[in-house]
Design brief:
Helix content: 25-40%
CATH architecture of the largest domain: 2-Layer Sandwich
Strand order of the largest sheet: 10-9-6-7-8-11
Strand content: 35-45%
Number of strands: 11
Distance between the termini: 26 Å
Radius of gyration: 21 Å
Oligomer: single chain
CATH class of the largest domain: Alpha Beta
CATH topology of the largest domain: Nucleotidyltransferase, domain 5
Number of helices: 6
Number of domains: 2
Amino acid sequence: MKIRLEWYYTPAKTKQSFFMKSDWMSVASALIVSDDLEKTGRLKSIEYLDDHDTTWTKKDLTKFLKQFETEPHDVHAYIDGGFDVSSRYAGIGLAIYYQQNNKKWRVRCNDTFELLEDNNEAEYAALYRLLRQLEEMGVHHQTVNIHSDSMIVVNQASGEWPCYEEHYNKWLDRIDERSSKLGLTLNYELIDRSLNKEADQLATQALEGTKIESVIEKV
């Protein structure tokens, strides 16, 4: 989650207050900056707004930060979808890297979907399955970095390209609904296929009937 500060500041030797606002910053940085502003003794009022335009109190942000350390955060997910044309069977792979309790972790898992139309829909299914996995992990109210080699999914899901295909739009609606429910901001990055081998292998294994689900600490 990112925070923007908005405050009214009264300079020394004047009664006039000026409205100011900051760039987006982490919760920890926002609390440090607000503490510094308060120490000047010239801070008239201050508000903390997140990237969903929700207003927070300093007390709630401090509480959130303490909880945040024990919950999954700094999430980077690699996703891929594979599709078998003859059976309309899709395999999807997820490799999720994150931090929790001051340690680095990796989740690897795969899954299958039936009766899809094409490979791009398999990629959308992978994205939706990622959100389900993040919900199970307790990931919420933060930015999630999603790495995919699907130009269609990255550009349509990010809003860079319009989507005219009805079966893709159904997935986009479900993705938007679930990400909003979890308070997630999805940051998409298009990567080369050579950088997505882990998720690709998991998707292939799913199509072959090999179920993968693991959690390991990264040293």
